[in-house]
Write a structure and sequence with these properties.
The complex is a heterodimer of chains A (104) and B (384).
Chain A: E1 3-10, E2 17-24, E3 35-45, E4 60-65, H1 67-75, E5 79-80, H2 82-91
Parallel strand pairs in A: 1-5
Antiparallel strand pairs in A: 1-2, 2-3, 3-4
Chain B: H1 15-30, H2 37-40, H3 52-62, H4 83-86, E1 107-108, H5 110-122, H6 127-134, H7 138-156, H8 163-172, E2 175-176, H9 216-223, H10 231-236, H11 243-249, E3 256-257, E4 264-265, H12 270-273, H13 277-288, H14 293-325, E5 326-329, E6 337-342, H15 347-350
Parallel strand pairs in B: 1-2
Antiparallel strand pairs in B: 3-4, 5-6
Helix pairs in contact in B: 5-7, 13-14
Classes of the chains: A alpha+beta (104), B mainly alpha (384).
Chain lengths: 104, 384
């Protein structure tokens, strides 16, 4: 059966929080996964401690990832889901997928 | 002149009987009452223009209270603790005489807070040095710098500031002024205070032979359940403040006791934990060498400098370590940046069953207790 690296949603209403998990592709989203390899907080945070107005103030999102485990699971054929592919692409673990749309 | 309550016509037919019966029941008291008004109103159906308390209030307002009607700018207008009226300026300013525990503490004056900002930001002095010079807690110094910074930014952006409000409040509450040239700065607050450590709350019966010396260092070890120091090591410590230098230089040298979740650092003596341990050394030196004031001051300055250098280096190392584990990604055309932190999901970090309370990420098979009674959900601290 296919192994997937995908997101498992936690958190309450309007406060999503995801574990990045390795699980059997056909198991439920909330089921216990094979392994947790990271977390993803999609709620953007404002950088604090900015005394300088010229500072770069784009809000940021936090990802935690165990690179060694991610590499191992990719090596044994686990397939990342699209959102996880995007995150792993940013971490430099997989080749980013080409966008299917063009930004204006 | 006391304003009077407007007397209203009484329309209730029953009231005359009620009032008369009331008057007859209180007639025995009225003989002791100095006021003849009550006596003369025995059979009156008209509402009393004033109650006793109200009369007393206006009497107070026209005598004692008259002095409080207009406040003197730059002075508190409290019932107690006024220097000019009572003559005892030593009394703590208490706005509510019935509440003895409420003391109106002084706040920083505008001049003083601006001086704090100038010394820290423009003269590049350390928080520690400014705290000792002006007698203000280090946390307050840091807060003042942040707030003044914010105020300056708002001024630069042309945002309105509540200046009349600030002026009015500062006129009415006690403030710590900034010393003029040649004056000694009045200290705003005690700066070397230490909250009681929770592990010192235990009542421990610990018999010690009379022949053995037992200091604050040993007491800390007893409280944290660590074995006693070896004699050779203990003999080297002549005063608990001897440990300060080593621990400031290398805080990781503090011993650990216990295993797993129970692991804790050995409780250090108060001499080490206070915010300004160097001031203890300074006082000891002053006592030991009363005639070498310059040398003592010099040595103190050196110690402070060394401490600051060590702290700065430690901060930089920690920052570098943190930065090293975080990858900043700024995707093109995205509204957000991403910070990818290295994490370790191993048996050590998640526990054998993967449910350790300190494990990274949300856990499976552990009920979320955030809706439980008494769980504090609001943030109780701000990471600076």
């Amino acid at each position: 059966m296919v192994l997937r690296i995908r997101l498992a949603r936690f958190g309450n209403k309007h406060t999503p929080f995801y574990n990045i998990v390795v699980a059997q592709a056909r198991s439920a989203r909330g089921a216990k996964p094979l392994e947790v390899i990271g977390t993803y907080n999609p709620i953007p945070k404002k950088p604090t401690n900015l005394y300088d107005d010229n500072a770069h103030t784009r809000p940021y999102k936090e990802i935690a990832l165990d690179r060694a485990r991610a590499k191992y699971w990719l090596g044994v054929g686990a397939q990342p889901s699209d959102p996880v592919w995007k995150l792993m692409g940013m971490a430099g673990l997989v080749e980013p997928k080409p966008t299917t749309f063009h930004k204006a | 002149m006391a304003p009077r309550i407007q007397s209203r016509r009484v329309s209730n037919a029953l009231l005359p009987y009620l009032t008369s019966s009331q008057a007859s029941s209180t007639s025995s008291i009225s003989s002791t009452c100095p006021s003849s008004q009550l006596f003369s109103r025995q059979f009156s159906a008209t509402a009393a223009p004033q109650t006793k308390l109200r009369r007393q209030m206006f009497q107070w307002l026209s005598t004692e209270g008259a002095a409080l009607k207009h406040h003197i700018p730059g002075e508190t207008n409290y019932l107690s603790g006024r220097a000019d009226r009572d003559g005892d300026s030593n009394e703590a300013p208490r706005p509510f005489p019935g509440n003895r525990t409420f003391i109106s503490e002084a706040v920083l004056s505008e001049d003083l807070r601006n001086e704090v900002y100038v010394r820290v930001v423009e003269k590049k002095k350390s928080l520690r040095a400014v705290s000792v010079e002006l007698g203000i807690d280090m946390k307050r110094i840091a807060a003042v710098v942040r707030l003044v910074e914010m105020e300056r930014r708002q001024r630069a952006q042309g945002k309105p500031l509540a200046l009349p409000y600030a002026r009015a409040v500062h006129e009415m509450i006690p403030t710590t002024p900034l010393a003029q040239d040649g004056e000694r700065q009045t200290f705003h607050e005690p700066i070397n205070d230490l909250p009681a450590h929770p592990s010192t709350g235990a009542q421990i019966f610990y018999p010690v032979p009379e022949s053995r010396s037992f200091t604050r260092v040993d007491a800390g070890r007893v409280f944290s359940g660590a074995p006693a120091l070896e004699k050779a090591v203990a003999d080297k410590i002549s005063h608990p403040s001897d440990l300060v230098d080593d621990i400031i230089q290398n805080p990781n040298s503090i011993e650990w006791v216990g295993k797993g979740e129970n692991a804790r650092q050995v409780l250090q003596p108060a001499d080490v934990r206070i915010p300004h341990p160097q001031l203890v050394k300074l006082e000891l030196d002053r006592k030991a060498f009363p005639n070498e004031r310059r040398a003592v001051t010099q040595r103190h300055a050196e110690r402070v400098e060394k401490q600051e250098a060590a702290e700065q280096e430690r901060r930089e190392r920690a920052h570098a370590r943190r930065e090293k584990s975080i990858q900043h990604v700024e995707p093109e055309g995205s509204r957000f940046d991403y910070r990818i932190q290295d994490a370790k999901f191993t048996k050590e970090t998640t526990g054998a069953d993967g449910r350790a309370p300190w494990a990274p990420g949300r856990r499976y098979g552990v009920p979320a207790e955030d809706r439980k009674r008494g769980m504090v959900k609001i943030p109780t601290r701000v990471e600076a």
